[in-house]
Write a structure and sequence with these properties.
Elements lengths: L7 H24 L5 E2 L5 E2 L4 H20 L3 H20 L7 H29 L8
Antiparallel strand pairs: 1-2
Helix pairs in contact: 1-2, 1-3, 2-3, 2-4, 3-4
């Protein structure tokens, strides 16, 4: 297995770029929806719908794939969780209960774990290469 040394500057630039892309994606998918839906029985849901979160995740797969396929795995695994954590903190910090930090912590840990797993899968598939042509 070929190991390349960690290149700090490209990894840092990748992490910063992915954090910026992630912040923009959060703003596009989740930033505009700030109200909770009150149902007839008095329960509330929201402020986000499932399709918004799914859209955010699917949008972030493209830059993650780009970074990992170019072997900037550390930058990818750092950048997206940092962007999501900063966005969640900025979006939820006006919560009067003070419990927003629990949610921000969950976003941080969950996005770090998910980004690491998806990055490992992308890297493993990339190392396997395209399937060989069948001999005819």
């Amino acid at each position: 297995m070929e190991r390349r040394p960690l290149r700090p500057v490209p990894e840092l630039l990748t992490a910063l770029a992915l954090a910026g892309v992630t912040l923009a994606a959060w703003a596009a998918w989740l930033g505009w929806d700030q109200h909770r839906d009150v149902h007839s029985d008095g329960t509330t849901t929201g402020p986000y719908e499932a399709w918004q979160v799914i859209g955010l995740v699917l949008t972030l797969l493209a830059p993650l794939y780009w970074a990992v396929s170019r072997r900037y795995v550390a930058g990818a695994v750092a950048g997206i969780p940092v962007g999501l954590t900063v966005a969640a903190y900025a979006d939820w910090s006006d919560d009067s209960s003070g419990l927003f930090m629990v949610g921000v912590g969950m976003v941080m840990v969950g996005s770090l774990a998910a980004t690491a797993v998806v990055s490992a899968v992308i890297a493993a598939v990339g190392r396997a290469g395209p399937p060989a042509a069948a001999a005819g």
